[in-house]
Amino acid sequence: MTKRKSLFSIAHDHFHGLMLAQMIKKGGQVLEGMPSTVDEKVRFTIHFYEQELVNHFYIEENILLPIVKSYTHKVDKHLDKMLEEHKEINELVSSLQGKENLNEKLDKIGRKLEAHVQMEEWIMFPAIQDALDEEELKKLAKELKENGYENVYRY
Ligand SMILES: [Fe+2]
Ligand SMILES: [Fe+2]
Questions:
Q1: 119-130 b/e with 16+ CB inside 10 Å = b?
Q2: Å from CA of 51 to ligand 1 middle
Q3: Which ligand is nearest to the CA of 61?
Q4: Which of 56, 83, 55 is nearest to 69 (CA)?
Q5: Cα–Cα–Cα angle for 132, 135, 136, nearest 5°?
Q6: Is the model's pTM score more than 0.85?
Q7: Which among 7, 12, 61, 80 is least buried, having the fewest CB atoms inside 10 angstroms?
Q8: What spacing in Å lies between the alpha carbon of 50 and ligand 2's midpoint?
Q9: HSE-CB for 68 with a 13 A CA cutoff
Q10: pLDDT tens for the 155 residues of the chain, in order
């Protein structure tokens, strides 16, 4: 397994997050067959959050974070940012329960989610891959696999 590919199992989820972001942010691409009205988008976003994001955040916070911290503290600032952004996204999704300004709220969620995925993929994951050695990355991938995050790539 190359270092670069060791976190692909998590990155796979990110693709779905980016699709949601495109669907709900202002000026995003209109995706065929996907929700197009505000009400549909709100329902879809809440469903996506409950079905995918809650578990994704759980894995990052309770599997990835403690393992990485057990090996290095070099990436703590990125992990702190991750936690802070998860909290912001949780709060933004909860705010959809209030029925006012739904378009603005969806736009905010879309942009925040997109920026969050980019932060993890472009900054945090590379920093983790730099800070951990091959053996540590292998253990991290194994731990992720045991929690349902099987790497879809073959080596
Ligand atoms: Fe995250
Ligand atoms: Fe993530």
A1: ebeeebbbbbbe
A2: 15
A3: 1
A4: 83
A5: 40
A6: yes
A7: 80
A8: 15
A9: 26
A10: 565 666 767 778 898 999 999 999 998 887 788 898 999 999 999 999 999 999 999 999 999 999 999 999 999 999 999 999 999 999 999 999 999 999 999 999 999 999 999 999 999 999 999 999 999 999 998 998 898 886 544 33
CA of 30 to the centre of ligand 1 (A): 24
> Can you give the residue range of the structural domain that contains 88?
3-146
Domain CATH number, residue 32? 1.20.120
| The one-letter amino acid at 108 | K
Residue 42 lies in a domain: yes
Work out how many domains the chain is built from and give that number: 1
- Rg over alpha carbons for the chain, rounded to the nearest Å, is 16
